[in-house]
Amino acid sequence: MRSNIKKVFWFYFILFLILIIYLLYFTFFESKKIIYNEYNPRIQYIENKK
Questions:
Q1: How many domains does the chain have?
Q2: Total-model pTM
Q3: How far apart are CA 40 and CA 13, in angstroms?
Q4: Which of 17, 37, 43, 48 minimizes the number of CB atoms within 10 Å of its CB?
Q5: 3-state secondary structure of 44
Q6: Predicted confidence band at 46 (pLDDT cuts at 50, 70, 90)?
Q7: What range does the domain containing 38 cover?
């Protein structure tokens, strides 16, 4: 029983780490591409507002 709990803990811990790593990667490397993408509605909104 104790062994199963440890396995489940490590499984979720690794999943959580993968999620954190992905979010950090996206934030630091991919966010600029999303922000300046021509299909981003915020850009169109800002251009129309001027």
A1: 1
A2: 0.66
A3: 34
A4: 48
A5: helix
A6: confident
A7: 19-50
Per-residue pLDDT at 21: 98
Judge whether 32 lies within some domain: yes
The one-letter amino acid code at 3 reads S
Contact at 8 Å (CB) between 33 and 25? Answer: no
The answer to the question of residue 13 being in a domain is no
CB atoms within 10 A of CB 22: 11
DSSP string for residues in 1-50: -HHHHHHHHHHHHHHHHHHHHHHHHIIIIIHHHHHT-TT-HHHHHHHHH-
| Residue 37 φ/ψ region, left for φ over 0, alpha for ψ in the -120 to 50 degree band, beta for the rest | beta
